[in-house]
Design goal:
The complex is a heterodimer of chains A (335) and B (517).
Chain A: H1 2-23, E1 28-33, H2 37-51, E2 54-59, H3 62-72, E3 80-83, H4 86-94, H5 103-106, E4 121-133, E5 158-160, H6 165-178, H7 180-192, E6 196-197, H8 201-209, E7 215-219, H9 221-230, E8 236-239, E9 250-257, H10 264-274, H11 277-287, E10 290-291, H12 321-330
Parallel strand pairs in A: 1-2, 1-3, 5-6, 5-7
Antiparallel strand pairs in A: 3-9, 4-7, 4-8, 4-9, 4-10
Chain B: H1 4-29, H2 36-39, H3 42-75, H4 81-87, H5 96-107, H6 112-119, H7 131-156, H8 159-167, H9 172-201, H10 204-208, H11 214-225, H12 228-255, H13 276-305, H14 312-346, H15 350-364, H16 367-381, H17 389-413, H18 417-425, H19 430-457, H20 462-467, H21 475-483, H22 488-513
Classes of the chains: A alpha/beta (335), B mainly alpha (517).
């Protein structure tokens, strides 16, 4: 009896392996996604059904996944890095972990939303805005420049999230556009107005809705998400800053293909799929972000992407975070 | 010197637990000299002091809540004892950021309770942000560590001594102070150590409550600068604190002789008399803040967004994953904890103290440090095992090992070595004596350890996200995925499920623990 056990186990195991092989789709890719499943999960499912390529997704925070990729180096099982902001893509690219993308994909988006070295491409746009309490303020009362908010009239009324990646990218942009001295002066000026510190953008929007603060610095889509969840009478509105103001920065969520991949063709299909008109429209209607491919309509009720007077900047340079971090530390904005 | 059968496993476990420290040293050696100025500044010292202050406050708070609860639920005729035992342990499974969020939603500037007070004409709750808020929330999140370890000691200590004390005319309080307290002091110390180190490593709750802690500074380094060397240097300072705190605990413990005796019968409940109802009010207050407020917040999220929920199949899968990963981690930790507990109790000394410090340091470093250390070693040593459930479970077990060791050593401290020797004299071999004497007496400690590790594992995030098999989702990752995007409605169902699951688990474990009359 006992002598039968081992051969039987082997047969069972082999059958399992064979079944797994024959059932497997043509290829599969591994995606490290710094964008949450709640936002991009349905889109990735569509990719799977339409291409027959299976996408194994590891969700996490954009920066922790960047740290993971840096730690894994040549051993990374990931084929695609799908990041929430261009700075993280820039850091991974600078460490030599990203491959060159085909120009057909790159050329789908305007030059300012892709890597100058062709190593990553933006997939959706995220504009910096000031959310405000429409019960307390009107659009006309809000300044065209973010620098005006250092006025003592705003004392105790503002909220920000200095640990948030998008905020730090904005400060980096400020430094690159106006110089370190101006950025430092702005941080100190806002700091002097005793802003309430939050850990996440969503909390800022909720705090404005709750009347805890009058206005806060966030990305444009948080208010739209909260409105979709809580109804049209949600009292918070977006204010876009004007004329090439650092406060009007439009950052990109994007993706790149990792150097050690052995599934480059499928990884490219993933990026092509995300740049298709259908997926771009998904970003506009489901995550309330700006599509980057021209001809696809933006989120309803917002100014069009080319109407935002965004400053001229190479988004890859937003990976220069250490200097920003030092400044945030020195001004006491960050612990 | 401990015997080889103890020494070898203990060395192996110590080596496993040392991996994060080794990793941190490797990374810190790569630090850019110019960047050191960024952390070598007075602010770093300030943060450090504030964090240690917070951790010690949380430890004291956890004792103040945990010890009375343990005594009430284990020893007295408290009305609804069984129920209180379960509901007061459940807060352990609530992720600390959910607890913090609920706390702000209730007593924050625009919180539900603050509004009620305002309507009643009472103005101004003190601000929930900063030190006070962080200390309260972390105390609520960690008192179950003290509760469960202390309860273990009470369940197994001989009630006859206490009864003798009362028979000699001492009141309940005097008896507690003079007889019970010395017996349970080591248990309280090990529970408090878990609470203190938890508070030191937490960044979820402190972030929401806007308290600048040291762990948060480390996390911000990882998150913002992509510079792992500086973060490593900061984390090494945290390791140093762990060593210091566990050395202090070691001294407290070694000064007190442990009374070793196994109960011959279940204790007779102590009548609370006119203190019955104040005791109930105490339990209810703790439950209100630790469980009702978070549960009510989750309920509000639910009502806001029923129907936008995740598909049920995804919930079942992630619920199953939580249970599987949590149970495996609890079992592995329980097995690994035994040799260490034996070493701690039977062979105290310098070698033992080192092993203990290493084991506790893996618990006190921020999760991302242990996660990256594991990535580093697994890829270099056994790349085949990378991102498998096996490695994830092992990492959980190493991280939460102190939670299994604490109660196990408490129980073991109460097993008289004389009993084991008697069994040997009567002809049992060592294994037989272990099975027939030590193991049954150890049971409450092992059960409490299983509960602690399970409940902490099901809410764990950084290890799960970075080390799990790709696509491996748990209830905690589902809550996190939804809540970080501000989709609180979508976070509600997995959060409610997590709490339910935890209550059931605690209930089952405590049924198993009830002494057989």
């Amino acid at each position: 009896m006992r002598s039968l056990v081992a051969p039987l186990a082997l047969v069972v195991a082999l059958t399992g392996v064979l079944a797994a092989c024959s059932a497997a789709p043509p290829t599969s890719i591994t995606v490290y996604s710094g964008r949450s499943e709640a936002l991009v999960g349905p889109l990735i499912e569509r990719f799977e059904t339409q291409t027959g390529i299976q996408a194994e997704v590891r969700y996490g925070s954009t920066s922790e996944l960047a740290a993971l990729i840096l730690e894994e180096g040549a051993n990374t099982p990931a084929d695609v890095y799908f990041a929430q902001d261009a700075g993280a893509l820039g850091a991974v690219a600078a460490a030599g972990h990203l491959r060159t993308l085909p120009s057909e994909s790159l050329n789908r988006v305007p030059e300012r939303f892709r890597s100058p070295d062709s190593q990553w491409v933006g997939l959706s746009g995220r504009a910096r805005v000031l959310v405000y309490d429409s019960r307390e303020l009107t659009a006309e009362e809000l300044p065209a420049s973010i620098e005006a908010l250092t006025d003592p009239a705003w004392s105790g009324r503002l909220g920000w999230a200095p640990t948030n990646g998008s905020f730090q990218a904005f400060v980096t942009a400020f430094r690159l556009l106006k110089g370190d001295a101006a950025a430092r002066a702005w941080l100190e000026g806002i700091q002097a107005n005793d802003p309430v510190r939050y850990d996440e953008n969503g909390l800022i929007v909720q705090a404005v809705a709750d009347g805890e603060i009058d206005a806060g610095f966030v990305n444009h889509y948080y208010m739209l998400q909260a409105q979709a969840e809580q109804g049209a009478d949600f009292p918070v509105r977006n204010h876009f800053f004007g004329a090439a103001d650092p406060g009007a920065l439009v950052n990109a969520a994007g993706a790149g293909i990792l150097t050690p991949t052995d599934a480059e063709a499928s990884a490219r299909r993933f990026i092509e799929f995300m740049l298709s008109n259908e997926s771009q429209a998904y970003f506009a209607t489901e995550t309330f972000e700006y599509p980057l491919v021209s001809g696809v309509a933006g989120p309803e009720g917002l100014p069009a992407l080319d109407q935002i007077q965004s400053p001229d900047l190479d988004l890859s340079d937003l990976s220069d975070l250490q200097a920003t971090l030092t400044m945030l530390n020195e001004t006491g904005v960050l612990p | 010197m401990p015997p080889a059968w103890l020494l070898l496993p203990a060395l192996a476990i110590g080596a496993l637990a040392a991996l994060p420290v080794v990793y941190l040293i490797v990374r810190a050696l790569g630090v850019d000299a110019a960047a050191i100025g960024l952390i070598a500044r007075p602010r770093t010292v300030e943060l450090f002091v504030a964090s240690v202050g917070l951790a010690l406050t949380v430890g004291a708070g956890a004792i103040a809540i945990g010890v009375p609860l343990a005594w009430l639920t284990a020893r007295t005729d408290l009305p609804g004892r069984r129920l209180w035992t379960i509901v007061t342990a459940v807060p352990l499974a609530i992720p600390s950021y959910v607890m913090a969020f609920a706390f702000v939603a209730a007593v924050g500037p625009r919180g539900a309770i603050s509004d009620l007070l305002r309507q009643a004409g009472l103005s101004g709750l003190p601000s929930v942000y900063g030190f006070a808020g962080a200390a309260i929330v972390l105390t609520l999140a960690t008192y179950p560590y003290v509760l469960l370890t202390t309860r273990t000691a009470l369940v197994r200590s001989d009630p006859a001594i206490e009864e003798a004390s009362r028979a000699l005319g001492d009141g309940a309080l005097t008896t507690f102070r003079r007889v019970t307290l010395p017996i349970i002091a080591p248990a309280i110390a090990s529970g408090a150590l878990l609470a203190v180190l938890y508070a030191l490593a937490d960044f979820g709750a402190v972030a929401i409550l806007q308290f600048d802690s040291f762990a948060r500074a480390i996390y911000i380094q990882y998150r913002s600068s992509f510079d792992r060397s500086l973060a490593a240097l900061l984390a090494l300072m945290l390791v140093a604190v762990t060593f210091a705190v566990s050395a202090i605990e070691w001294r407290i413990r070694s000064r007190r002789p442990t009374v070793r005796n196994a109960p011959r019968r279940p204790p007779r409940p102590i009548p609370l008399g006119r203190w019955r109802w104040p005791a109930v009010v105490f339990c209810a207050t703790v439950t209100f803040f630790g469980l009702v407020i978070p549960a009510a917040t989750i309920a509000v999220w639910l009502t806001r967004g029923l129907g936008q929920g995740e598909p049920v199949s995804a919930l079942i899968d992630s619920g199953a994953n939580s249970v599987i990963a949590g149970s495996l981690a609890a079992l592995v930790a329980a097995v690994l904890a035994l040799p260490v507990a034996f070493l701690l109790v039977r062979h105290p000394g310098r070698f033992t103290a080192w092993i203990e410090s290493l084991v506790y340091s893996a618990y006190a470093v921020p999760g991302i440090v242990l996660a990256l250390a594991t990535v580093f070693f697994v890829l270099n040593v056994a790349p085949v095992a990378y991102q498998t459930l096996f490695v994830l479970v092992l990492a959980y077990a190493v991280r939460f090992l102190p939670q299994a060791i604490g109660p196990a050593r408490t129980s073991l401290g109460q097993v008289s070595s004389g009993l084991v020797e008697a069994a040997r004299t009567l002809g049992d071999n060592p294994a037989g004596a272990f099975r027939s004497i030590t193991l049954p007496l150890l049971r409450p400690g092992i059960v409490a350890g299983l509960a602690l590790v399970f409940l902490t594992t099901v809410k764990e995030l950084p290890l799960t996200l970075l080390l799990g098999p790709t696509g491996f989702e748990t209830l905690a990752t589902q809550i996190w995925g939804a809540a970080t995007e501000g989709f609180y409605a979508r976070a509600a169902v997995p959060a409610a499920l997590l709490m339910l699951l935890s209550a059931v688990t605690v209930g089952v474990l405590f049924r198993a623990e009830e002494p057989v009359a």
